Amino acid sequence: MHHFHTLGLLSLSPLVHGSLNTCRLLPVLQYPQCPAPWTDFRSVGRSSFNVQLSRANHTSASSSSIAYRIGTAFSAKGQRFNTKKDLFSFESARQSSDKQPFTGRPASGQDAFFVSTVGNSSSVAFGVADGVGGWIDSGVDPADFSHGLCRSLTHNARDHGEEKLGARQLLEQGYKDVVADEDITAGGSTACIAVGDRFGNVEVANLGDSGFVQLRLKAVHHYSNPQTHAFNTPYQLSIIPPRILARSRIFGSMPLRDYPRDASVTRHEVRHGDVLVFATDGVWDNLSSSELLRIVERYMTHFGAWQAGKKGTIVGKQFESLTKEGGIALEKENSLQTLLAVAITGEAKAASENPHRDGPFAKEVHKFYPHEDFQGGKVDDICVVVAVAVEADIAGQ
Predict the structure, then answer these.
(1) CA 26, CA 165: separation in Å to the nearest integer?
(2) How far apart are CA 213 and CA 180, in angstroms?
(3) Residue 224 has pLDDT above 60, yes or no
(4) DSSP per residue over 300-362, as a string?
(5) What is the spatial distance between Cα 369 and Cα 352, in angstroms, rounded to a whole number?
(6) What was the pLDDT predicted at 316?
């Protein structure tokens, strides 16, 4: 693990006393963050979460509604990335009446993700959470918070009523349940979650330095900005035990504690052929948005999902079929969105372990700590959720 100067135990001023841990810092303690997947679907296959949406009657530029097809991939720090096993996909049609949650933990380290339909509607909720690793120094499993949060987000989305669900509202509900969970006594996590409806409206709540990009026709259409209190100290939801609060009072300081209300909420319109990539900082610390775009573009153009048209790039006619399970002739990552998730995870993993390739994190270190000899990638857990937007009438709805 690379080392840096740590921030003060009870303050945010960068005190040079030892070395700065590459883990993300949390209030009072040093923590890194990472996530794992949860879904309320009992049968989980290795393809893509296919949210089939009915045709919508509405007054928008498009006469058809949007289906979100989702694939995920992940890799724990210190573990080899298995491109045949470290991925998940979801078939909502098989599981629409199943109320039992999937309760397994994938080999994603402290990272977590979730995907769920919203109540009985055609909307879908999905996202990532990144457990703050520094809690391990206090005997706390950092994965408990991030996994617990994603489990709660799944349940709250799946059990939601008829009214519209907002991303921040969902995050508030999930966090409230984690705080009330007697099995989770301490910990913290960043989170970047979304709720997408059949009209192509996607609302995103981002707290911390996980994040997302929206890609459209070989261009970065939107990207999120990280929320940080200081270098390597992201916003984070947390549960701080009384003993740590008491310790902070002795030093005349109070630990940081962020809430869902502090999340940055943005609203986006997605179109047929758009690609949404949600990921933990294991990706963003090692790949820039432009590098991620090149990865996605490589596969989208190779399979004809994005093509050259008379007036620029267009969505290929075979795009929808590529997003179906079996749309790509591979044994496991056999849909376009799952293949993209695997490719991004693999590139981020390779970059994180490359001592000669300076990624975004290394460049930030050079900016804030020019005297530090930090080179190469930043080793961390990695979690990626890829959602592609498909017009429902094209999808046969």
Answers:
(1) 29
(2) 32
(3) yes
(4) HHHTTSEEEETTEEEE-TTHHHHTSTTSS--SSS-SHHHHHHHHHHHHHHHHHT-TT---HHH
(5) 20
(6) 95
